[in-house]
Design a protein that fits this description.
By secondary structure, the chain is of the alpha+beta class. It has 3 helices and 9 strands, in the order βββαβαββββαβ. Strands 1, 2, 3, 4, 5, 6, 7, 8 and 9 form a 9-stranded mixed β-sheet that branches. Strand 7 and strand 8 form a beta hairpin.
Length: 159
């Protein structure tokens, strides 16, 4: 399964994108500010440009797994009940650790992660739980059950 995150707008405090699964629109996203980093950017340059909890992950293609339990999210009642803390996790993101896809409203909810929702309000997403559950139930969990490889490709239309 291929997830595409097409970043369409970035500013000083957040980045908005569209998420597609195998070419079909799934939802929007909000992330921290895109600082123009690429997966191929040297690690020392990523570390120099990265502002902790205020920088979107580098554009590129990453494997996604649902097989790693998040220590913090597994303690939150909603995530414990819904998925026992097994959220979509992006692997081998240079300069970043623990990058997940989850629910929230603004880039402040992100800390580098990808927040799912619908961008109907400037600077945030709404109906995040609905969007995240759709992504999980319709796409990610069935792919995991089929033992299908999941990747996410992150691009930007503004660069």
């Amino acid at each position: 399964m291929k997830i595409e995150l097409k970043r369409i707008f970035t500013c000083k405090t957040y980045t908005i994108g569209h998420i597609y699964v195998d070419g079909k629109f799934a939802c929007d996203s909000i992330e921290d500010t895109d600082r123009g980093l690429l997966q191929t950017t040297p690690l020392d340059e990523i570390k120099a440009k990265k502002v902790y909890s205020e920088t979107a992950i580098p554009r590129g293609t990453y494997k996604v797994t649902l097989n790693i339990q998040s220590p913090s999210f597994s303690k939150k009642a909603y995530y414990k009940q819904f998925c026992n803390g097994y959220l979509p996790r992006l692997l081998r993101v240079p300069g970043f650790d623990g990058i997940l896809m989850h629910r929230g409203t603004t880039a402040k909810s992100s800390a580098g992660c990808i927040i799912c929702g619908y961008n109907k309000v400037k600077g945030q997403v709404v109906d995040s739980q609905k969007a995240w559950e759709k992504l999980m139930r319709e796409y990610l969990q069935p792919a995991q059950k089929r033992n299908e490889s999941i990747t996410i490709q992150i691009t930007a239309t503004y660069a």
